[in-house]
């Protein structure tokens, strides 16, 4: 990270607030600093407490200033129209996840009879199945995660958003390791997963930001060393081991559509090459911004498959469909 | 002049039906003569169709995924036919910001196409008028208080009581005049508004 010039700190103090220089080193620029400070103030204003608000603002700014992600400081992150609770030990939902989930829902609602079965593996906060049940009325969702903290938070998130979800919405949360034998609903319409996909070398490099390395759970980011044996069995890299297993599950339960988040183009290509058989006729790679932003569609060839590449930014998800 | 002469006959509520044949004769678009009030403002403008908008997510895009956690939720819209660019980073929610940005764009286009007849201009006028009348009233109140005070001070001298009552009477009369002025000013405004399109056509 480049060093911030001292004048920037003076500017922050003069233009924004005396509290601004405290969070400037983690926000890195004046615009973000002023936004985050405003959001902290708004949060304090909208959550009444007997503690004086000035003290609470100072406490939150202090917490943020040591690098804690804002989502952990405030305890929430907006995701589509929902508000997802965030807690230390569970991965924070990202904008790109929101973008491809919204886009996925537009594909489904335009071309399907009711009811829709959603299965989400490595669910974390439960953001993906929650948003899909919100957007697709009459959907039933099953969410699975290996971490008990995640599952309890996902359940809390379901209750937290209960009033905005359609009344008939039905969600099941199960704590289970996806490498162990599972009992899963058969032929779900959508199988989504945002599994750990960062290689341990990338995790240690500066490409992974400090706030992620220090504050977010490594379990949700990097496939653990205990999976090395599995990686050898599947004959793939350690960071791709979850995709190998999820594609296996997708074949077993005959999922109609599969959406897997990936780190970038190279990993997306490796995942596409992993797909066996001809069940999935349509294969696409979605980039960071697929929803809302100006739509760019390209076509490329990977192996024998023709791939539709949609969106702007880095490659973010691989989409398979039988339909 | 014409309007001023017929003004006494006009009913305050819905004069347009009464005047419509005349208006069509004069090729004059008549707007209802109702005063601008909170309930009578023009509707909020609608945003242009999505096909005319180019949307981008500033800084929020670029390298992302699990390895980076960004709080930036800014949304930027560009209206292709006019080249107007608006940006919203008000909330942490990107979907909320998309709505806000569209609202701002609709407002900007309304201002561009309708000028003085746009919602923002009319709301601005209304607010200005309200503030002016409020200032006027408070000035009057404090002037009255000050006069009462000085009168009370003068009242200590013999024969003071009578002077106070006289001053109060005068003040009341002035108040009535002020109110009448208020009404007249208002009416002139409607007439100005109504004659405005007529001027354009002539």
TrEMBL record, chain A:
Any GO molecular function: protein methyltransferase activity
EC category: transferase
Coiled coil: none
Domain Methyltransferase small: 104-201
UniProt keyword Methyltransferase, yes or no: yes
EC annotation from Swiss-Prot or TrEMBL: 2.1.1.297
CDD domains: AdoMet_MTases
GO cellular component: mitochondrion
Lineage: superkingdom: Eukaryota
Catalytic activity from the UniProt record: L-glutaminyl-[peptide chain release factor] + S-adenosyl-L-methionine = N(5)-methyl-L-glutaminyl-[peptide chain release factor] + S-adenosyl-L-homocysteine + H(+)
Keywords assigned: Methyltransferase, S-adenosyl-L-methionine, Transferase
Name of a matching Pfam family: MTS
GO biological process: methylation
Protein name per Swiss-Prot or TrEMBL: peptide chain release factor N(5)-glutamine methyltransferase
UniProtKB/TrEMBL annotation, chain B:
GO biological process: mitochondrial translation
InterPro entries in alphabetical order: Mito_Transl_Release_Factor, Pep_chain_release_fac_I, Pep_chain_release_fac_I_sf
GO molecular function: translation release factor activity
UniProt GO cellular component terms: mitochondrion
Residue numbers spanned by region Disordered: 36-74, 171-202
Protein's cellular compartments: Mitochondrion
Listed Acidic residues bias regions: 171-188
UniProt main location, coarse: mitochondrion
UniProt keyword terms in alphabetical order: Mitochondrion, Transit peptide
Domain (Prokaryotic-type class I peptide chain release factors): residue spans on this chain: 49-144
Family stated for the protein in its record: Belongs to the prokaryotic/mitochondrial release factor family.
Protein name per Swiss-Prot or TrEMBL: RF-1 domain-containing protein
Organism (species): Podospora fimiseda
